[in-house]
């Protein structure tokens, strides 16, 4: 009867020994990060400490080498936090995001940069752009499209007047919960707060479960969560971060109508990102309103076998008869076939602006 306990004790001793090894190796990695910081400070005073392409390569390698039992994404998330903490020893990364605190955009920022990054909420998308342009922060995080509701036009419009580049992307799986406070009377909920997009993403569920409840749109889901704290008959649609921030509990979980509901966020900064091995490029192309314009724009992509992943049309601010196309495609601008395609597009378009080449989101 004692053998299982002996085996359990041996396993615990093995775990303790492994923990000691992990602690020692993380400390060694952190010391290496400090040495990197010292070298960069001495030889590259204005050098970039955060390298998106290097981080993407490391995380991809971790996922490729992982043999379980933890799944590859979970392992990559652990390494992301180690890298985030080590980078903070070199130079803490300051990140502006579309606030307030507790939004999905903050969740995307922490998913991409890790918990050791300094995240600062901004009231509007254009304020995120201004903070990065002014050098007050290193990077910004803004939403660009949702799988249910489509593109966020305010973000696309902000790129038209900005010199910032896209340095990365984050795709966040969006789970909406119906949240209540400790004072809410569960059987008396007559008002629900949320962002208009969240209402749209949960419309069928609300129609089925709370058809009589008043739906009150607010500026953000975090604001919805804050309001619920003060009312006994209200609920909010929001995510895990807002629930934790305001101490709310879930009356219902994952109430989004589509199980694949996700939002894509862009990382914006002042740097050009080198090739990582699996990249995406975004650009803005201005075309004159004339017959065959769209065909002329798309033909070089087809001939050079460039995989276009998104095409959005917006009216140009510079002329009534001009249109602007926002395009995402697979590949890096420094790759020969991509460079050749871009040169042809420039000859056919009124204007071409490359917003950036950056690593495809790993997590």
Automatic annotation (TrEMBL):
Keywords: Amino-acid biosynthesis, Aromatic amino acid biosynthesis, Cytoplasm, Isomerase, Lyase, Multifunctional enzyme, Phenylalanine biosynthesis
Residues in ACT domain copies: 282-359
Main location (coarse class): cytoplasm
Catalytic activity, EC: 4.2.1.51, 5.4.99.5
Keyword Transferase on entry: no
Purpose of the protein: Catalyzes the Claisen rearrangement of chorismate to prephenate and the decarboxylation/dehydration of prephenate to phenylpyruvate.
Pathway: Metabolic intermediate biosynthesis; prephenate biosynthesis; prephenate from chorismate: step 1/1; Amino-acid biosynthesis; L-phenylalanine biosynthesis; phenylpyruvate from prephenate: step 1/1
Single GO term (MF): prephenate dehydratase activity
Catalytic reaction equation(s): chorismate = prephenate; prephenate + H(+) = 3-phenylpyruvate + CO2 + H2O
Subcellular location: Cytoplasm
Domain (Chorismate mutase) ranges: 2-94
Keyword tRNA processing included in the entry's annotation: no
Positions of the Prephenate dehydratase domain: 94-270
InterPro entries xrefs: ACT-like_dom_sf, ACT_dom, Chor_mutase/pphenate_deHydtase, Chorismate_II_sf, CM_dom_sf, CM_II_prokaryot, G/b/e-P-prot_chorismate_mutase, Preph_deHydtase
Superkingdom to which the source organism belongs: Bacteria
The protein, known as: Bifunctional chorismate mutase/prephenate dehydratase
UniProt cross-references to PROSITE patterns, sorted A to Z: ACT (PS51671), CHORISMATE_MUT_2 (PS51168), PREPHENATE_DEHYDR_1 (PS00857), PREPHENATE_DEHYDR_2 (PS00858), PREPHENATE_DEHYDR_3 (PS51171)
């Amino acid at each position: 009867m004692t053998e299982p306990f002996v085996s359990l004790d041996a396993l615990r001793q093995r775990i303790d020994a492994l923990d000691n090894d992990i602690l020692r190796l993380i400390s060694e990695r952190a010391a290496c990060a400090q040495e990197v910081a010292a070298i960069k400070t001495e030889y590259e005073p204005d050098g970039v400490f955060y390298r998106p392409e290097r981080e993407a390569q490391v995380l991809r390698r971790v996922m490729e080498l992982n043999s379980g039992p933890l799944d590859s994404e979970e392992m990559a998330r652990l390494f992301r936090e180690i890298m985030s903490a080590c980078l903070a020893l070199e130079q803490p990364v300051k990140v502006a995001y579309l606030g307030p605190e507790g939004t999905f955009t903050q969740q995307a920022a922490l998913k991409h940069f890790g918990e050791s990054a300094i995240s600062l909420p901004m009231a509007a998308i254009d304020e995120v752009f201004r903070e990065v342009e002014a050098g007050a922060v290193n990077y910004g995080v803004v939403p660009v499209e949702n799988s249910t509701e489509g593109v966020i036009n305010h973000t696309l419009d902000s790129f038209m007047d900005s010199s910032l580049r896209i340095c990365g992307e984050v795709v966040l799986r969006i789970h909406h919960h119906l949240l209540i406070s400790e004072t809410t009377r569960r059987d008396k909920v007559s008002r629900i707060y949320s962002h208009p997009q969240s209402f749209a993403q949960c419309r069928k569920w609300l129609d089925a479960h709370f058809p009589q409840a008043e739906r009150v749109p607010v500026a953000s889901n975090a604001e919805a969560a804050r309001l619920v704290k003060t009312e006994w008959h209200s609920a909010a649609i929001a995510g895990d971060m807002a629930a934790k921030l305001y101490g709310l509990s879930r009356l219902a979980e994952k109430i989004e109508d589509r199980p694949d509901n996700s939002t894509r966020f862009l990382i914006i900064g002042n740097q050009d990102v080198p090739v990582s091995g699996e990249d995406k490029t975004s650009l803005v192309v201005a075309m004159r309103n004339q017959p065959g314009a769209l065909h002329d724009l798309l033909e070089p992509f087809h001939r050079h076998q460039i995989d276009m992943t998104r095409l959005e049309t917006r009216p140009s601010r510079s002329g009534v008869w001009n249109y602007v196309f926002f395009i995402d495609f697979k590949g890096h601008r420094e790759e020969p076939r991509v460079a050749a395609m871009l040169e042809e597009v420039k000859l056919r378009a009124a204007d071409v602006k490359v917003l950036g080449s950056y690593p495809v989101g790993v997590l």
